[in-house]
């Protein structure tokens, strides 16, 4: 990158034996800070507390604070204005994936609060276990120095650190060019922040794909599909708000102090505001375009699956309706036959009964005895 003032730390946490890792993370953001002094509950200590809480605690708590850049003010400039020593940014993503898919087993201890669930798969003895995974990126960078000093911290659940081993290193210029991210002098730290978020998006996509593949065999997936679509859209919206905030911060800053200069060009010819904003936005456009491409592809797949589930449910409903209609038709046939038999035989039965009642009279009259036998025979036939 043309300078040796930046470094990155990548950590995998499991919520069980992280006691040795957390102090290292705190040290990267709060070096030379007196964390026992309550008056320092702002700037870097506050940022570090939020950063760790958003990774280890419940998801969604005070998420609007992600988009705020914490600052540390120190000293006075020659013009008598407060000097901003550094700025700190953070970004968090989460994904739900199928437990045990891809040859790994996700297990976290009580130190990491993760959402879990079980999806019943019809026709199979085993259910589909779902688990949450998080990725967090934090940046501490100087804001006004021509050669900025920055520290980048990337955290992920320990079970996915195998994926993180293939992440491109921030010191490889060819990887920056392939990602369409341009390093710069004053804002090289912010560019590295964008570069790392972009490199995490394929990992984010891979886990979402594992979840969608895991539920392809399930029929009762409508609820989880709707939730998955909401969670994917949530990460896309978070990135959009983060970029908007940093962009506004760039616009309201002193453009002479915030000038973005190409490492291969003459600094005197690249301090214009148009060049500054163009380079700055180009870096984040590369990140957003990749996430939109991945996110829209996942959402399209979810929508297709939802349509298949709905069509299957409609087919099952139609099949049930046809079956019930067939049963109703058969029952109507039975009713029709019973009605016909009743209509035809009821009058004859009534006449037979009446005639049978009068046979007793015939038996008391000898002159009509021959006829009584005929009436009895007719009654039996009817």
From TrEMBL:
This is Uncharacterized protein. It comes from the Eukaryota. The chain crosses the membrane at residues 334-357. Keywords: Membrane, Transmembrane, Transmembrane helix.
């Amino acid at each position: 990158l043309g300078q040796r003032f930046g470094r990155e730390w990548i950590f995998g946490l499991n919520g069980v034996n992280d006691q040795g890792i957390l102090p290292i993370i705190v040290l990267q953001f709060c070096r030379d800070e007196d964390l026992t002094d309550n008056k320092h509950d702002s700037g870097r200590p506050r940022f570090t507390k939020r950063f760790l809480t958003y990774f280890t605690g419940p998801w969604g708590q005070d998420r609007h604070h992600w988009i705020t850049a914490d600052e540390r003010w120190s000293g006075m400039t020659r013009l008598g204005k407060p000097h901003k020593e550094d700025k700190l940014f953070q970004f968090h993503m989460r994904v739900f994936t199928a437990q045990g898919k891809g040859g790994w087993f996700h297990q976290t201890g009580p130190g990491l609060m993760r959402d879990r669930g079980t999806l019943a798969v019809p026709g199979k003895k085993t259910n589909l276990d779902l688990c949450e995974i998080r990725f967090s990126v934090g940046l501490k960078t100087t804001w006004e120095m021509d050669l900025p000093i920055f520290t980048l911290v990337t955290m992920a659940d320990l079970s996915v650190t195998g994926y993180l081993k293939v992440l491109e290193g921030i010191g490889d210029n060819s990887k920056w060019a392939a990602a369409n991210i341009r390093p710069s002098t004053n804002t090289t730290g912010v560019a590295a922040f964008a570069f790392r978020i972009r490199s995490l998006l394929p990992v984010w996509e891979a886990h979402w794909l594992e979840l969608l593949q895991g539920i392809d065999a399930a029929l009762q997936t409508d609820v989880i599909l709707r939730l998955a679509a909401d969670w994917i859209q949530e990460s896309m919206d978070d990135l959009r708000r983060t970029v908007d905030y940093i962009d506004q911060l760039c616009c309201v800053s002193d453009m002479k102090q915030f000038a973005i200069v190409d490492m291969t060009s003459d600094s005197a010819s690249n301090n214009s505001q148009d060049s500054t904003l163009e380079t700055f936005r180009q870096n984040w456009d590369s990140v957003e375009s990749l996430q939109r491409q991945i996110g829209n592809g996942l959402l399209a797949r979810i929508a297709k699956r939802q349509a298949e589930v709905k069509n299957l449910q409609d087919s099952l409903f139609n099949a049930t309706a046809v079956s019930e209609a067939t049963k109703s038709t058969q029952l109507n046939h039975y009713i029709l036959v019973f009605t016909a038999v009743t209509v035809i035989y009821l009058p004859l039965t009534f006449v037979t009964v009446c005639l049978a009642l009068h046979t007793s009279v015939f038996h008391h009259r000898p002159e009509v005895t021959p006829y009584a036998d005929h009436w009895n025979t007719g009654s039996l036939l009817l």
